Amino acid sequence: MTAKARTTKARAKRIRVGIVGCGNIAGPYARDIASKSNLELVALTDLEPARAEALANEHGGRAVPTVDDLLGEDLDLVVNLTFQAAHAGITRRSLEAGKHVHSEKPLALSSMEAWDLVDLARRHGLRLGCSPFTLMGEAQQTAWRELRSGRLGTIRAVFAEVDWGWIETWHPAPVPFYEVGALIDVGVYPLTILTAVLGSVRRVQSFGRTLKPDRVTKDGTPFRIDAPDFQVTLLELEGGAVVRLTTSFYVGQHAKNYATVDFHGDKGSLWLGHFFRFDAPVEFCEYGDGKTYSAVPLVRESKVGQVDWGRGVEDLALAIAEGRPHRATGEHAAHIVDVFMAAAESLRTGEAVKVTTSFPVPAPMPWAE
Q: What mean pLDDT is reported for the chain?
């Protein structure tokens, strides 16, 4: 059977999906899951039942009262969109119920929890996936193809900027985001891309400060944050590249380079204009004074301003049906949690911290090879 025939056959088998957590990002997830020919949205649940009912009315499936009710449904895969501190517990319950899982990031808030989930999924013969899925975007795959081509030569330095601003200006429940901090909540996006394409992290050193401790929610309730809202983390990768990752819940998205990644090699530099957007610009500049950047055409067209929130779930479902590895794995997510823990230790001690874990390298998307 040809690869095309296997993919066609795999797409014919629909994976039945349940969503736990129907907050801000559940809408885009439900919309894009419902649009996939190999996925069927079956059930949704939330601590606020009206939110699950609203999503079910708009995108299909059935709102159910509790997580236990959802896990009792005839479904194959749970998409875990709960708050960060609840991720590990919901994922564990879902795996123990015999369901594959795709979790929003982070996989867990400790290394032990993260790797225990990886082991649990393996022992039960289940798939464990985790966001970010943004490596699968057209712009990100284009940048990766350029790196693989050798056009930049040896990559020795990477600068990643993540300025996400004041969460309370747009999210009704900002406190959990500040509790985990900008590195874990949004630094995870470029960090996941960089480790996928350049190798595992081997050493971490981090510096952080709380620049604006006193905040006010959208409804006028004051709250105070203790975790850094500005953090600079240096990462040494096993491939030899050094990364400077800046993450901030103070500097906003009005900043000129708020979500960029710059790869610098012996032969030239590559600029990814946004680590999240699938239609982001990608530009290359040959090394040398007076050289200028020029646009790199994307490997395929992407809808302007849109992100396919169902792409990671779709890839996991196809991988199950095709019997191949999925791309956004639990092992990768657990390694990223190790990096977060190393950064936290470095903040406490002021010293560099080693990271020893690794993960299977994901394959490029078939349309970007």
A: 95
